[in-house]
């Protein structure tokens, strides 16, 4: 489908990666792994045709279609949500031409069992399926189904795209890409702007899709549920693992141990060689041996070990005085923005030491509730804070409150107290601010970097009640692991707004779902809540497909005939493959029997006679099976 041939990228003398060769096959779902800055997004841009590699090349069919969702995207205004989504179907003419071209090519070929032929058939099936979606009545059904899966309501369809935030506009772009049914999907952090329901819907969509997928994500659960192959970019090279992300991590740890042992052995060899050279450098009788070892060192390919692969930072949040038994109680709480009511009649009690996930669709009231708790919004009803509660609150806008003239290190140094000061450099490194980066001014940091810095600053402030609103959005997997462990050992109370199932799993003991202006306490915890969402997503997918078919009627007879023809061709190929295998088996058995007969002519043993009888019976059975397949 698509091949990368010795692809490399360099910025001047600095090599980002080199000699990457990969084969991407139809329907494969691949996770791109590696440290921040390893080149994952750059590689996606190369595959998408957004930039040229410094070295190497790409090979792919001329009619391949690629859908690319970058992390940051500028969208244009002037359309409703429905109109913008309908732009996904603008290539109808090109697709019809592709169907005609592929049909002609298939009709002229006779290599029915070759991979190239099978790939042509699959591409024709994909393009034909896409073409069938272009009936106007089907377009709207597909658009609504996809947009609703990504969190939009029916009332949003006719709203202008300019009315939505950047995150929601990214959802519109994702919907357009999914609706266009490309051969290859490239997704760079697709879950960043999605709530948990939309993420689970997207997982179901990708599992059912016929497209190949390459994605970058810091959501381990999402990767495990959607990918079956992991390609890691490390130290400028690509390492290919035919497995999902979690298993890849285990294999990668084993590779690192092997790498470390090889490095240590090589260093020992280098030291011995250098000692020999130094010892006998000036002895004429040893000059030939010295020169030989000098050349040996010059030709030696040095083994590199990934920096800080085995680093593990542990720290605990500084605790303030212990709070009362009930840090927060809400009774008949209602919150509105003008005439628009967001929460109504909410009753909940938070006990000291609770770790609670606040979940629900975006816009369901989670952040509104948090801001109300922080006394940023007015409300009706009762909201009572417990005795001696000291809150530490993380929100995305806190990044704007950082001193732009301070360095990263100074920002943290100003709030760190006690023994934690000894770990400032380690903590900064764990959150991707290690080494010289710590001396950067806040003013030059990106929005994501500032949010990450604000998170560290908050976590070093003494408190007994943590409120975290989407704390993992700008963290890599290693940083999330550090944060999760710190929260696990935190003795205070925690409220976490998050869509990251892997982060929340095993961390929270209660789940409050915000839905229909109310708060539902899920007694079964995260596992129970996620299971309900997965069942609903699978059921909705089937139900919506059935409803859509009922609405638009049965697919046309030509499409049905085509599907039947494909099924007959598949069955014929399957039987031919069986015949080929049985004929090969017959030839092998006949050769074995002939060899045994030659041996029997020279000497007769019970073992040879038993083997002859066994092979003869196997040949008879094979011939009967061959006759059955041929008659079919």
Number of helices: 19
Main β sheet profile: 6 strands, mixed
For the CA atoms, what is the radius of gyration? 31 Å
Percent in strands: 15-25%
* Strand segment tally: 18
Return residue spans where pLDDT drops below 50 for at least 5 consecutive residues: 551-560
Average pLDDT number: 83
**Which word captures the global form?**
globular
Helix content: 40-55%
Tell me the structural class: alpha/beta
Query: In whole angstroms, how far apart are the ends?
Result: 34 Å
Strand adjacency order, main sheet:
5-6-7-3-8-9
Polypeptide structure, described:
The longest helix is centred in the last third of the chain and has 46 residues, at 557-602. The chain has 19 helices and 18 strands. Helices cover 47% and strands 18% of the residues. The protein has helices spanning 40-47, 81-86, 92-107, 115-131, 136-149, 166-179, 196-208, 220-226, 245-280, 287-299, 366-373, 408-413, 424-430, 447-459, 477-488, 501-504, 525-552, 557-602, 606-631; strands at residues 2-11, 14-24, 29-33, 55-59, 66-69, 184-188, 212-216, 229-234, 237-241, 328-337, 340-350, 355-359, 380-385, 391-394, 465-469, 493-497, 510-515, 518-522. It is globular and about 100 Å long. Strand 17 and strand 18 form a beta hairpin. It is α/β, with parallel strands linked by helices. The strands form four sheets. Strands 5-6-7-3-8-9 form a six-stranded mixed β-sheet, sandwiched between helices. Strands 14-15-16-12-17-18 form a six-stranded mixed β-sheet, with helices on both faces. The model is unreliable at 551-560 (pLDDT under 50).
